[in-house]
From TrEMBL:
Biological classification of the source: Eukaryota, Viridiplantae, Streptophyta, Embryophyta, Tracheophyta
InterPro entries documented for this protein: ERG24_DHCR-like (IPR001171), Sterol_reductase_CS (IPR018083)
Keywords linked to the UniProt accession: Lipid biosynthesis, Lipid metabolism, Membrane, NADP, Oxidoreductase, Steroid biosynthesis, Steroid metabolism, Sterol biosynthesis, Sterol metabolism, Transmembrane, Transmembrane helix
Record's protein name: Delta(14)-sterol reductase
Topology class, membrane: Multi-pass membrane protein
A GO BP annotation: sterol biosynthetic process
Organism: Cucurbita maxima
Length: 369
């Protein structure tokens, strides 16, 4: 069994490759033809801006409907994904490696001077491969960065739905599984309802597209965010009423902080005079928002994200550390990212950033960090 597992991990099956290929083709077609709001991105250093067709919610609903019809007509097995978890992980990993290699080739061969495509080549291959060379590379008119993060979020939900189907077929469906599935489904649906907010996030506006983002979007998001569901397939977790209420409270508070802070930032970037909690915004140096959640902590959205991650794991109880891999990893990642963000902001805004950090001294969690 160990050898079989390693082979599946190293060599993806043709079925897994086919599933991944069909998924990507569907997303490419749906993202291009289905109606959706055209959202302008932030203004880039060369004064240009990209535009994004935000039809992710419709694309997701149509996909789930098509899969549901396929299952109803016995064309598709509802457990096709959960039965091939390791194979799909392998196929997606190797696709990420291939895609990043092609991005490196495109970056080295690009002579564009636009902010989106101008290559940033340090001469350190590992650095350029990991962080990427181009800000917003495209393929056949598709913004790859936006495409990959959409694929990762949808992939996470599809894995969860297939795990849920397996749980129902195996007669192991539990309250914990229902809680986990509900929280994740609400999170993913909410993401696509507010998909336009993604256009003003650090990943989109500042990170170049390299292995870090490609692997993070396509492999890490769907396959590690779903660990709790896989764990609940073979392990029981009985929650008390008090534990269930506490779990729901953590999810709700996390959602309010995460969505509220991201909404405030997005609206401020669109209109720096928009009211924050019913009051005119406090702005440092005419550039940095210091009102609302952003007056409580400099990265309050990270706090909301961490609480949401914790709420996905709490249904599993405390008998094993495995379901807590995701929130533990996310804590380390966000602290690392927060340090990188702070360094970039200090370099970009200089005295304005110093003034802002004095006004808002807490990084993520007030009075703790």
């Amino acid at each position: 069994m160990d050898l079989e597992f390693l082979l599946q991990l190293a060599i993806p099956s043709w079925e897994a490759v086919a599933i991944l290929f069909i998924f990507f083709v569907y997303l490419a077609i749906a993202g291009s033809v289905l109606p959706g709001r055209i959202i302008p991105g932030v203004i880039l250093p060369d004064r240009t801006r990209l535009h994004y067709r935000c039809n992710g919610l419709l694309s997701l609903l149509v996909l789930v409907a098509l899969l549901g019809i396929g299952v109803k007509m016995n064309y598709i097995s509802p457990t096709a994904i959960s039965d091939r978890g390791v194979e799909l992980l392998s196929a997606t990993f190797w696709f990420s490696v291939l895609a990043t290699f092609l991005l490196c080739v495109a970056g080295h061969s690009s002579s564009s001077q636009s902010s989106s495509l101008k290559p940033c080549i340090t001469g350190n291959f590992i650095h350029d491969w990991w962080f990427g060379m181009q800000l917003n590379p495209h393929f056949l008119g598709i913004d790859l960065k936006f495409f990959f993060v959409r694929a990762g979020m949808m992939g996470w939900l599809l894995i969860n739905l297939s795990v849920l189907a397996r749980s129902v077929l195996d007669a192991t469906l539990s309250q914990s599984m229902i809680l986990y599935q509900t929280f994740c489904a609400l999170y993913v649906l909410d993401y696509f309802v507010h998909e336009e907010y993604m256009t003003s996030t650090w990943d989109i506006i500042a990170e170049r597209l390299g292995f870090m983002l490609v692997f993070g979007d396509l492999v890490w998001i769907p396959f590690t965010f779903s660990i709790q569901g896989w764990w609940l397939l073979t392990n029981k977790s009985e929650l008390t009423t008090a534990a269930t209420i506490a779990n729901c409270s953590v999810f709700l508070i996390g959602y309010l902080v995460f969505r509220g802070s991201n909404k405030q930032k997005h609206m401020f970037k669109k209109n720096n005079k928009a009211l924050i909690w019913g009051r005119p915004p406090k702005v440092v140096g005419g550039k940095l928002l210091a009102s609302g959640y952003w007056g409580i902590a400099r990265h309050c959205n990270y706090l909301g994200d961490l609480l949401l991650a914790l709420s996905f794991s709490l249904p599993c109880g405390i008998s094993s550390p495995i379901p807590y891999f995701y929130p533990t990893y996310l804590l380390l990642l966000l602290i690392w990212r927060e340090r990188r963000d702070e360094a970039r902001c200090a370099e970009k805004y200089k005295d304005i950033w110093a003034e802002y950090t004095k006004l808002v001294p807490w990084r993520i969690l007030p009075y703790v960090y």
